[in-house]
Design goal:
The chain has 381 residues and is of the alpha/beta class. 35% of the residues lie in helices and 15% in strands.
């Protein structure tokens, strides 16, 4: 079996080395000529997989090691009898970690000492947005959710209007990119909706870049009463608008889901589907392949209040300002074409583990232990 795979999919050699020959490629620049002798194609979200890429190739199995599938023409694959697998939910916890860390920095900036009264609006309640909603609610935060397709399907949960969600203190975007149909999301936050946001609000986009009109957002951020904005995804990746990046409060290179666990779970799920398709049992186990965390333990005394303890634990595990600094350094000296360097930040991403990898030893109040546990940390003491 001949497998062609994106160079940014981790642990494939361990999971799929028993199935045949593995060739690594740049997923963003992948062309049909690289697939003329391939049986299997494994991608991430930067590769558009459709008739233009696969026509007249021997590829019979396509897998994407991602939650989203809007970069895959699944209807065409089905019509051609090409097997397909994705990794729903694989990096949901990683994106939640990203959002919680950004939210914690926002609370520090706002000098808030409590979560009382804080409202967070979540647009898109699928694998990621749904998990985020549950974690935020467990932390005691008031959450408003907008997801018209899910609401129309009869899902049993409280939904709010988009206007109500956009009135929250923090707005977090987690929709797929939908161009047409009853509920399109392309430029869902257009010039008019961006104008309604105020300077006391925070907008986070870790879903799809084009859900926000980036040029309209740049115009909005040039105004005196602009909201704070944290962008992890961008229109025209890997070449986002440099002026927009400069004006964002936090700017990161599409890495919200890039925890070791998030990426590796995606690999494991797609590898399992590939082994089933090939009729070969999979022997590798993710538990034996993860690297040790950079920090495995944190000790907090009773002098650290609940929200401060949560902030310190989140920042110890993952501080998005590090990714922000790397991206800004790249663009500060970038030539017109930043494509290779933007992708290099993602390819060479440092080891980042999720909260469950870190034990927090605690001398403190029950409320502190509750917050830390519900954010995913292992709490002892």
């Amino acid at each position: 079996m001949r497998i062609v795979a994106d160079e940014n999919i981790p642990l494939l050699e361990a999971f799929c080395g028993d199935l045949g020959t593995l060739t690594r490629v740049n997923g963003r620049n992948l062309g049909r000529d690289q697939l003329l002798d391939a049986d299997v194609l494994l991608v991430r979200s930067v590769t558009r997989v459709d008739q233009g890429l696969l026509a007249d190739t021997p590829v019979r199995f396509v897998g994407t090691a991602t939650i989203g599938t809007d970069h895959i023409d699944t209807d065409w694959l089905k019509a051609r009898g090409i097997a397909f697998a994705s990794a729903p939910g694989c990096n949901a916890n990683s994106v939640v970690q990203y959002v919680l860390s950004v939210l914690s920095l926002f609370l520090q900036r706002s000098e808030k000492r409590t979560l009382d009264g804080l409202t967070v609006g979540v647009i898109g309640a699928g694998n990621v947005g749904g998990t985020l909603t549950e974690v935020l609610a467990a932390l005691g935060i008031t959450v408003r959710v907008s997801d018209p397709p899910l609401e129309a399907s009869g899902a049993e949960r409280p939904f709010a209007s988009l206007d109500d969600v956009l009135a929250c203190d923090v707005i977090s975007l987690h929709t797929p990119l939908v161009e047409v149909g009853l509920h399109p999301t392309s430029h869902l936050l257009d010039r008019q909706r961006l104008a309604g946001l105020c300077e006391n609000q925070l907008l986070i986009n870790s879903g799809r870049g084009a859900v926000v009109d980036n040029r309209a957002l740049l115009e909005r951020l040039q105004q005196a009463d602009a909201p704070l904005v944290a962008l992890d995804v961008w229109e025209n990746e890997p070449s986002p608008l440099p002026d927009l990046l400069e004006r964002c409060w936090l700017a990161t290179p599409h890495i919200a889901g890039y925890s070791v666990e998030g990426k590796s779970r995606g690999t494991e799920m797609v590898a399992q589907a590939l082994h089933q398709w090939a009729g070969v049992p999979m022997s590798a186990s993710l538990d034996n392949l993860l690297p040790p965390p950079p920090v495995s333990g944190l000790a907090l005394t009773a002098q650290c209040g609940p929200l401060e303890a949560l902030h310190r634990a989140l920042m110890t595990c993952y501080d998005p300002r590090d990714d922000d600094a790397r991206l800004r350094k790249l663009f500060a000296g970038a030539a017109a074409d930043t494509r290779p360097s933007f992708d290099q930040l993602r390819r060479d991403y440092p080891v980042r583990r999720e909260p469950a990898s870190m034990e927090v030893r605690l001398e403190g109040h029950r409320e502190t232990a509750r917050l830390l546990s519900r954010a995913g940390f292992r709490v002892t003491g």
